[in-house]
Amino acid sequence: MTTPVYQNFINGDFLKNQSGETFAVKNPATDDVIYHVEVADSFVQNAAIESAKQGFAVWSAMAPIERSRILLKAVALLRERNDLLAKIEVLDTGKPWQEAECVDVQTGADVIEYFAGLAPAQVGQQQMVGEDFYYTRKEPLGICAGIGAWNYPLQIACWKSGPALAAGNALIFKPSEETPLGAIKLAEIFTEAGVPAGVFNVVQGAAEVGQWLTHSPDIEKVSFTGEVGTGKKVVASAAGTLKDVTMELGGKSPLLVFEDADISQAVSAAMLGNFYTQGEICTNCTRIYVHKSVYQQFIDELKTRTEQNIVAGDPLDPSVNFGALISKNHHNLVMGYIEKGISEGATLLTGGKALRPESAPNGYFVAPTVFTDCTDDMTIVKEEIFGPVMSVLVFEDEDDVIRRANDTHLGLAAGVFTKDIKRAHRVIHQMQAGICWINSYGNSPAEMPVGGYKQSGIGRENGIETLDHYTQTKSIYVGMTDIESPF
Ligand code: NAD
Description:
38% of the residues lie in helices and 22% in strands. It is of the alpha/beta class. It has a 7-stranded mixed beta sheet with strand order 15-18-19-14-13-21-22, sandwiched between helices. Strands 10-9-8-11-12-24 form a 6-stranded mixed beta sheet, with helices on both faces. The N and C termini lie far apart (81 Å). Bound molecules: nicotinamide-adenine-dinucleotide.
């Protein structure tokens, strides 16, 4: 059977490359190649820039409320095609249908809707200075680039295009080479909704195509989602043309469970924050610090629920709640961390092995894994694994656990479980992390800004402030009096 070949999406349509170079995309749950994609060669890259320039001229000249109406049409189309798009995400990522059906498309649509609503509300300032005055305009940056990771491909494309387009910019988006189809479908939807040609282009490929975006002198900003190490390369490259950057990077986030916590709720949070999307979520609470007095109760319930309630298998089966990892390479990397955990002396409470579910025997599955008796110096406690591997640690003293939780160069997220309202706020205020939860974990509504402290990121996505990251302020001084000049 021949598989489809997708081209780059430029100037409102598909554009064939000249090099003929393509790459294959596999379904992580079956190991089958499901389609091929053309790489954005220099012909496509030049076309992307030219079309984005033209698209920007048209789009930025529209009234924000006009842009808003068009974006809201795209939101309606996204919701209408939820199931079709969710299936694409399941086949590309290996995540369960159960999740994609209610999260991936909807949280993407929510963010575009949110920024479409905000676009006409963005205003400048005016102030008298004597008899003269000045006013400011919020102007778009121009052509922006988005570079995405593979865990939430369509959602990431929506989270970057929502504010970028609402503010009047053109965007050239490069999805991860592991999951390129969702962004193409979004481009088709934008075009159908009436977004002018060239405003949203999709270029395909791996690091080299990303590097071209970060070098290009025609691009004003790069919004990147991916690993810390790649983010550093992107920032260094973007510095060559002094591009604005937004960096949404990795984490190794702590969850603190105090002795007065609702333990079942804390176990739910720990499981969601380690096993949802088979552990491939940047904000995951992979370091769980549990107070000594409730430690045994916590790990007993955690073991029982992990072993009884997690169903791995064909991700398209609606009863499956645990999918396959993105690739064979990533699978091996995660298994390597598990071996390291064992060799460094952590106790394997459950999991720790590759899985071969009957309904998906060739998929890249790793069992939900929990290590106990972990210490702060272990590799599994220090490094982001980006798989279903949880480390549980014990603590006794509040100040000490805060110090330990913060003892990392990462600072994406943190959580606390306690019924003591004062302690909850006191502790969370001391967490060096950009996204924090009290008696909850993982929810990220469009209204709430998200982003990392320390090496987990620069800038924010979502929330009102993000629109500022896609605009620049122009100050205009208006002389109402004669100029006083010594010349
Ligand atoms: P990655 O860094 O390997 O790749 C991300 C993107 O960068 C891909 O599109 C890739 O092709 C591109 N790329 C690779 N090298 C590049 C270069 N030199 N210049 C420009 N672009 C380049 O990350 P990944 O493996 O796709 O995703 C997993 C990582 O993403 C994890 O670390 C995870 O924590 C992080 N992540 C963060 C967030 C967040 O919002 N903070 C969200 C999702 C994922």
